[in-house]
Write a structure and sequence with these properties.
Elements lengths: L3 H4 L4 H6 L3 H6 L3 H12 L6 H16 L3 H7 L2 H26 L1 H21 L2 H10 L3 H4 L3
Helix pairs in contact: 4-5, 5-6, 5-7, 6-8, 6-9, 7-8, 8-9
């Protein structure tokens, strides 16, 4: 059935308040996200990490041909893999109560990752994007690694 949610593209509160990087992505450009999951991610005959990279590559192409977009989109799988790995390790060692206390720092890190990656969208050019990332010592690449 078609309703308002079919045309809804952004869940602002979900993007801003959500703790998880992956969840924040799902709340942004939702109709495109749905299409990418259904027709690119799930159908790619690749391991999970490579499927994420493939999906981000297609998403970058969808958004345009500016190199900054590709730099940002192709950094997303690094953050997704880091988030999954960190959750496994941290949850296993901390327990439920400590995991709940980690919500604030987790959210803060997610938002800084979004800030860092948005520069590819804002600056568009590879030289400008890499120049900005270099000015902050590629922290948005080093932290997830």
């Amino acid at each position: 059935a078609w309703d308002f949610s079919a045309a809804r593209t952004i869940d602002v509160l979900g993007t801003e308040r959500g703790r998880h990087f992956a969840g924040g992505l799902r709340c942004w450009n939702m109709s495109v996200q749905w299409w990418l999951v259904q027709y690119v991610h799930r159908r790619a005959p690749l391991p999970r990490t490579l499927r994420s990279a493939w999906t981000m590559l297609v998403s970058a192409f969808w958004h345009g041909l500016q190199p900054g977009l590709y730099l940002s989109f192709l950094t997303v799988p690094v953050w997704l893999a880091a988030e999954r790995a960190a959750e496994r390790v941290v949850r296993g060692h901390l327990g439920a109560r400590a995991w709940a206390l980690a919500a604030g720092p987790h959210w803060f890190l997610k938002m800084r990752a979004f800030d860092y990656l948005c520069m590819g969208f804002v600056l568009r050019e590879a030289r400008a994007t890499l120049g900005y990332w270099a000015s902050v010592y590629f922290c948005g690449h080093l932290v997830p690694i």
